[in-house]
Design a protein that fits this description.
Elements (H helix, E strand, L loop, with lengths): L2 H29 L2 H5 L7 H8 L3 H13 L4 E3 L4 E3 L2 H7 L9 H11 L2 H10 L9 H18 L10 H9 L2 E5 L5 H9 L4 E5 L3 H13 L6 E4 L12 E7 L8 H11 E12 L11 H20 L11 H10 L4 E4 L7 E7 L1
Parallel strand pairs: 3-4, 3-6, 4-5, 6-7
Antiparallel strand pairs: 1-2, 7-9, 8-9
Helix pairs in contact: 1-6, 3-4, 6-8, 8-10
C-alpha cells in the first residue's frame, strides 16, 4: 500500500469528523444566539461573550475554543479575545435574509438523529417518514428556504418568466405543491394581490404552521392551505401557475402526481420547478455541495420516498431525470432557466 495515500486519507477522516463536530457547534451558536451576540462587536473576551449572551460560562468558553479551532472565530492569543468577522456574520447571523446559511446547520442534528434508523433500512428496506423528523426537521427546512422565498422567488427567480408575472399581476390562480410552512405561497400572495393561491402539503404540522403564518400576514382571504392529496381539490379547479419548490425528488408517486398536476394546469399555464443543483453524472457531483446533497438524500429526501413505497429519486435527481418524468406525465416542454444559484436549478414546465 501507498503510505502517502494512507496519510492523506487519515487526514481526510479527521477533517470530516472535525467538520461534523463543527456543524454541531455552529448549530449551537445559532440556536443559542451566540453568533448574534458576537456580531459586529469586534474582539471579545470570554467574559464579554458570556455577558452579551447570558449563557453558562463554561459552555461558552468551550464553544469559543471549538469555533476558534475550526476558524469560524478569530482568536488572539495575546489579548485572549475571540472575534466573529463581519464576513462570517453575513452568513450565520443574518436570519431572514437570502444569504443566511444557518438552516444547513440546523439540518445536521435533525438528519443525523435518524441515522440509526436509516442504517436499519439499509438491511430491512423502507425508510424514515417525514413526521419522524419532528418539529426540528420542519424548522430546519424553513430556515434553509425562507429567505430565498421571501427575497428571491418574486424579485429574481420569477423575473425569468415575464408572462407568468404579468398573469399574476392581472389576477391568476396559483398552486404551491409541497408548500411546507407556506413561505413561498405567502411571498407570491403578498406580491400579487389580485391573485389567489392554494398551498398543499401532506404534513399536517407544516400546514398548521402555514395557516398561522397566513393569518399573521393577513392573507387568509387569498390563500388557503390544505393537508390533503391533490385529488381532494374540487373537481375542475385549475391553475395558471403551479410552483414545486424543492419537492419533486421527494414525491412518493412522482408519475401519478405529475400527471395530476398536468391536468390541473391551464393550457397556457406554467409549472415552475426548483430542484437541488445537481448533474446527471456522478463525476460532476463530486464536490462539497454534491457530497452534502447525497447526505441529505440518504438521511432525508430519498428515505422519505422509500418509506412511502416510492422510487427514492434522491436529492441529486438531475435535470435529465426531471425532464423525462414531466414528459412521461404529459407535459410538452421542460426548459431549464438561466437563473444563477450555487445550490438550486430552475425549470419552466408547460403543457
Amino acid at each position: 500500500m501507498d503510505k502517502a495515500k494512507i496519510k492523506a486519507f487519515v487526514d481526510r477522516c479527521f477533517n470530516d469528523m472535525a467538520g461534523a463536530m463543527s456543524a454541531g457547534l455552529v448549530y449551537v451558536g445559532i440556536r443559542t444566539g451566540l453568533f448574534a451576540a458576537m456580531a459586529q462587536r469586534g474582539p471579545m473576551s470570554v467574559a464579554q461573550v458570556v455577558d452579551a449572551s447570558q449563557l453558562e460560562p463554561r459552555y461558552v468558553e468551550e464553544w469559543l475554543n471549538g469555533m476558534a479551532a475550526a476558524h469560524y472565530l478569530i482568536y488572539d492569543p495575546a489579548a485572549l479575545t475571540f472575534e466573529f468577522p463581519d464576513e462570517h456574520a453575513y452568513l450565520l447571523a443574518s436570519e431572514g435574509t437570502d444569504h443566511f446559511a444557518g438552516g444547513m446547520f440546523h439540518m445536521a442534528p435533525a438528519l443525523l438523529a435518524v441515522a440509526p434508523k436509516v442504517a436499519e433500512a439499509f438491511v430491512a428496506g423502507g425508510g424514515i417518514h417525514f413526521e419522524e423528523f419532528g418539529d426540528d426537521g420542519i424548522y430546519a427546512l424553513d430556515l434553509i428556504n425562507r429567505g430565498n422565498y421571501q427575497h428571491r422567488l418574486v424579485d429574481y427567480w420569477l423575473k425569468a418568466l415575464p408572462e407568468v408575472t404579468a398573469a399574476l399581476e392581472a389576477g391568476a390562480a396559483g398552486l404551491d405543491i409541497g408548500c411546507g410552512v407556506g413561505y413561498a405561497t405567502l411571498a407570491l400572495a403578498t406580491a400579487y394581490p389580485n391573485s389567489q393561491f392554494v398551498g398543499i402539503d401532506l404534513d399536517q404540522a407544516s400546514i398548521d404552521q402555514a395557516s398561522i403564518n397566513a393569518a399573521e400576514q393577513g392573507l387568509t382571504d387569498r390563500v388557503r392551505f390544505i393537508a390533503e392529496p391533490l385529488e381532494n381539490l374540487p373537481a375542475g379547479e385549475t391553475f395558471d401557475l403551479i410552483t414545486a419548490c424543492d419537492c419533486v425528488h421527494d414525491f412518493a408517486d412522482p408519475q401519478t402526481l405529475l400527471s395530476d398536476l398536468r391536468k390541473r394546469l391551464n393550457p397556457d399555464g406554467t409549472m415552475f420547478v426548483v430542484e437541488p443543483k445537481a448533474s446527471d453524472r456522478l463525476e460532476d457531483n463530486c464536490h462539497p455541495i454534491g457530497a452534502m446533497f447525497y447526505g441529505f438524500s440518504v438521511f432525508h429526501c430519498m428515505t422519505q420516498s422509500l418509506a412511502a413505497g416510492g422510487p427514492g429519486l434522491g436529492t441529486c435527481m438531475g435535470p435529465g431525470k426531471l425532464a423525462a418524468l414531466v414528459q412521461q406525465a404529459g407535459f410538452a416542454r421542460c426548459e431549464q432557466l438561466d437563473i444563477k444559484s450555487n445550490v438550486n436549478m430552475f425549470f419552466a414546465v408547460r403543457a
